[in-house]
């Protein structure tokens, strides 16, 4: 596998679709807020929402669509500027489900960046491990092959 093209994305005002209700969904929502994006959480009302995620929803007013993922979410929940196509998708449940594969396929077709937890083959981007000090950011990646190592 060739090395990845490392980039820094200005995510101010972007819409990030977060699919799942686990602790990782909470972390993705926090990171989206931190970089100036608006996270929209997709998880059924009956889902077991992790405490940390519930706290973020309450404290930060994260929009929670209390239902299953729908294909139309990708092209209807985004900004006016992008004709309502979302800017990025994070599937937090892992890549072993048929839903994760389906979402990845849809995102690739629509050229929407997608990240599926623990499934590098379903991702079009990975999240770097970072250290931030003021305007300085240092990032390390293993291209999805050893996130704990990074």
From TrEMBL:
Gene Ontology biological process terms, A to Z: siroheme biosynthetic process
Pathway where it operates: Porphyrin-containing compound metabolism; siroheme biosynthesis; sirohydrochlorin from precorrin-2: step 1/1
Keywords assigned: NAD, Oxidoreductase, Porphyrin biosynthesis
Name of the protein this chain belongs to: precorrin-2 dehydrogenase
Gene3D superfamilies reported for this sequence: NAD(P)-binding Rossmann-like Domain (3.40.50.720)
EC id: 1.3.1.76
InterPro entries in UniProt: Met8-like (IPR028161), NAD(P)-bd_dom_sf (IPR036291)
Pfam families reported for this sequence: NAD_binding_7
A GO molecular-function descriptor: precorrin-2 dehydrogenase activity
């Amino acid at each position: 596998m060739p090395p990845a093209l490392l980039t820094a994305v200005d995510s101010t005002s972007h819409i990030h679709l977060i699919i799942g209700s686990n602790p990782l969904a909470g972390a993705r929502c926090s990171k989206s807020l931190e970089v100036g994006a608006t996270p929209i959480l997709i998880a059924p009302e009956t889902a077991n929402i992790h405490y940390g995620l519930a706290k973020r929803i309450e404290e930060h007013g994260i929009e929670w669509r209390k239902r299953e993922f729908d294909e139309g979410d990708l092209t209807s929940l985004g900004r006016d500027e992008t004709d309502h196509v979302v800017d990025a998708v994070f599937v937090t449940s892992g890549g072993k489900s048929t839903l994760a594969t389906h979402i990845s396929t849809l995102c690739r077709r629509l050229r929407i960046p997608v990240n599926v937890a623990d499934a590098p083959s379903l991702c079009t981007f990975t999240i770097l491990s970072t250290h931030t000090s003021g305007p300085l950011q240092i990032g390390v990646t293993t291209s999805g092959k050893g996130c704990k190592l990074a």
